[in-house]
Each structure stands twice: as structure tokens, then as C-alpha cells.
Amino acid sequence: MEGVAVVRPTYETESDLRNERDVVEVFNKLWGTQAHKLPRAYSLDYLLTRGSDAVAFVEIKCRQVPSGKYDTLMISMAKILKGRAITRETGIPSVLVVKWNDKTGYVHMPEIDMDVRVGGRRDRGDAQDIEPVCMIPINSFRGVET
Q1: Could you tell me if 28 and 34 are in contact, meaning their C-beta atoms sit under 8 angstroms apart?
Q2: DSSP state at residue 41
Q3: Per residue in 66-107, pLDDT tens?
Q4: Which one is the CATH code of 14-140: 3.40.1350.10, 3.40.50.300, 3.90.550.60, 3.30.230.30?
Q5: Bridge-partner residues for 105, per DSSP?
Q6: What is the pTM (predicted TM-score) of this model?
């Protein structure tokens, strides 16, 4: 039907949310921040604050593979564009954090080289999972101690 919004399923599980919280807690300790889970409308996972000041927007991805398995990380281009727009409009950094099986790293979204391809998941049978994606070299990520 034309003009009717289609609501996509939510694939995020309670386990995914728990993993995100564990990862963001590492950054809270590292950066002396407090994490606030964002509503879905923001497209990113958290806003980090220090006192009453907003210091970073964060998108968290947990990958169940070692960091060296692939040369690049694939992520929805829409996530990167949203993070860049937030930084451009607010001056507040937007950061992509990835936890692999063997390490955790981060990259500032405006610094990501936009190597755009068509890609996505094919295991859920959701045609909207195939979209423009950014391929980010793994060596672009700054490592952190977890």
C-alpha cells in the first residue's frame, strides 16, 4: 500500500543488548563517562556524558569472529551517515565501537573512508538487509584494553 509505513522487525536480542552494555561499560571506565541508551529514532546506540555534558555518540557492534578473520568490517552506510550528521550538527564526536572475539576497537565516524558497496546479511530472508554498506579496514580501529 502506498503511503503506509512498513515496520521492520527488531532483530536485537536481550543477549545483544547485554553485550552492548558490557562493551559500553569498558568505555565508561576508560573515558570517565556515563552511558545513556538512545531511542531507535537516533539510529545509534548510546550517548555518553560526563557530568551534564554530552561527550560522544556511540554505535556498538559485537562480532563473533577474531579481528583478523576479515580485512574489513562491513556496516550499514546509513549508520555511518547518521553518525556523521550528528557530529556535523552538534560538534559531538560519533564513534563506532567494535568488539571482536580477541579485541575491542573504535573509530571516529567522520574519519571513516567511505568505501561503499552493496552488501548485508542474507541469512534472515529480509530483503531490506541488503543495502549500501561501508567496508572499513580493520587497521583503522584504535584498540582498547578490555
Answers
A1: yes
A2: G
A3: 999 999 999 999 999 999 999 999 999 999 999 999 999 999
A4: 3.40.1350.10
A5: 98, 143
A6: 0.86
